[in-house]
Design a protein that fits this description.
8 strands, Thrombin, subunit H, rod-shaped, five-stranded antiparallel β-sheet, three-stranded antiparallel β-sheet
Length: 159
């Protein structure tokens, strides 16, 4: 199953938290919300091993709304001035990796569902169903059909 992938921003511009937040708050006030992508998307708060990746589903003015905390890293309190940016995260990598694997599986399944290139009826001496005597269509005429339809004397008489 395909994983949701979120748009990035070239060079990962940063903004900052404009008012402190606690570990359970589901809104994040920013100085400049235009420095993060439109919702839904991911951003990372912080710049070191304590960083927290969040998922937000909306933007109202300079506030991220519908925030799911701790998508990566622990949900903790963040103070004014904490850096916020749309960085490439482990979640982004894992979603990409899973989507490629899913795509490869779908291609493999589709290839396994198609007819084989070397059908036993089209290798060696090809065979085909023999039409009934009197058939007049674009269907393949086998040698058996021809023999059943015409005798040698019929062919000689037409020459």
């Amino acid at each position: 199953m395909q994983q949701t992938m979120y748009a990035g921003l070239a060079n990962s511009p940063q903004t900052e938290i404009s008012a402190g937040i606690d570990a359970v708050q589901n809104t994040v006030p920013l100085l400049v919300s235009s420095r993060v992508p439109d919702a839904p998307n991911l951003v990372t708060i912080g710049t070191d091993e304590t960083a927290e990746t969040i998922l937000y589903t909306g933007k109202a003015g300079n506030t991220l709304t519908g925030v799911m905390r701790g998508v990566e890293g622990a949900a903790i309190a963040w103070g004014v001035g904490s850096k916020v940016a749309r960085n490439f995260t482990a979640k982004d990598y894992e979603s990409l990796r899973q989507n490629i694997a899913d795509h490869e599986n779908r291609i493999s399944d589709a290839e396994n569902d198609k007819s084989p290139n070397e059908s036993p009826e089209f290798t060696g001496t090809p065979t085909a169903p023999t039409a009934a005597v009197g058939t007049n269509s674009t269907q393949i005429a086998t040698t058996e059909f021809v023999q059943n339809t015409y005798t040698a004397s019929d062919v000689l008489a037409k020459l």
